[in-house]
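Retry 2 of 3 after timeout on previous attempt. Resubmitting structure tokens to design endpoint.
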């Protein structure tokens, strides 16, 4: 039986684990939903030695990567993969970025450094924009009254449905994808306002008022979301992984989430 080890069994990695188990893989994982304790080094190392494939979805801790700091030596010779962020590209004024674009110039310098460390180890690094999916989408923000429309003309974001991330990971394993970076993003970067308006339309609600950043009184983390502006190109993943997003735009993604099960 093929064996996969996942560091950090959260929202995205959890759906990936479910898919791989359905394909007959044995999956061990750390994290709140995992079966192993990250700090139990003996047990983790034993499971890692048995695994052929490893995925880490653990974000940086401070300025470093806790997975690499503790377990890099046990992962030698494994098929490695890492969930990174398109935040490594920084702000490019709304221009398109692909995997050849410079990294490390934005606000997520620690993430860029971890991204580079995984690449140096020979991993497949999947750079992800805003992730959405069931129970984690614009619908929840609209229903809770926390949705905003910010008056920032020209501001766009890329996003990706969680199931399309899973599709990219599965494709990479099945094709034994070359080492390197891959952007997994949808085909239509657009403003957050547009996504909120579509969610409101599907819910039959009026969209929230248009506000300035100051009027919206966002948290520092949320304000940082608007500090960078880019469009993320996904051509490499399509060419190399044979990947096509099931939800190529926010419209298909939101409609699928809204549809009854």
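Retry 2 succeeded. Sequence:
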């Amino acid at each position: 039986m093929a064996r996969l080890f996942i560091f950090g069994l959260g929202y995205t990695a959890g759906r990936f684990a479910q898919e791989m188990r359905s394909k007959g893989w044995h999956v061990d994982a750390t994290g709140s939903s995992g079966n192993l304790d990250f700090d139990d080094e003996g047990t983790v190392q034993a499971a890692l030695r048995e695994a052929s494939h490893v995925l880490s979805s653990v974000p940086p801790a401070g300025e470093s990567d806790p997975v690499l700091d503790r377990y890099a030596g046990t992962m030698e010779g494994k098929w490695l993969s890492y969930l990174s962020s398109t935040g490594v590209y920084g702000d490019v004024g709304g221009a398109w970025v692909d995997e050849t674009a410079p990294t490390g110039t934005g606000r997520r310098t620690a993430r860029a450094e971890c991204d580079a460390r995984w690449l140096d180890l020979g991993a497949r690094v999947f750079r992800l924009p805003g992730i959405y999916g069931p129970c984690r989408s614009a619908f929840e923000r609209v229903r809770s009254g926390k949705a905003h429309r910010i008056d920032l003309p020209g501001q766009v974001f890329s996003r990706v449905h969680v199931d399309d991330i899973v599709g990219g990971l599965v494709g990479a394993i099945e094709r034994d994808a070359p080492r390197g970076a891959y952007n997994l993003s949808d085909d239509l970067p657009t403003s957050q306002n547009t996504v909120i308006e579509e969610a409101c339309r599907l819910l039959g609600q009026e969209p929230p008022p248009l506000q300035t950043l100051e009027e919206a009184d966002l948290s520092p983390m949320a304000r940082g979301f608007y500090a960078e502006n880019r469009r993320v190109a996904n051509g490499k993943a399509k060419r190399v992984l044979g990947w096509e997003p099931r939800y190529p735009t926010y419209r298909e993604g939101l409609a699928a989430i809204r549809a009854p099960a």
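Attempt log closed. The radius of gyration is 19 Å.
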